[in-house]
Amino acid sequence: MDNLIWKKSTRSSPNGGHCVEVAVTPSNLVLVRDSKSQLGPILRYSISSWREFIRNLDRR
């Protein structure tokens, strides 16, 4: 997982507050972590689950 490209959410606060980063693995898993705790827990989602999550956010 060292070669992953992590992208910070555009909604993350610039002063080190609430920061979420997302990366996609070669096997198409979406990984989500807290950027302040990069060695902490990582949530894993299938591409289809992640797309459904994003779709539901867009409806709000």
Automatic annotation (TrEMBL):
Limits of the DUF397 domain: 6-56
InterPro entries: DUF397
Protein's recorded name: DUF397 domain-containing protein
Species of the source: Catenuloplanes nepalensis
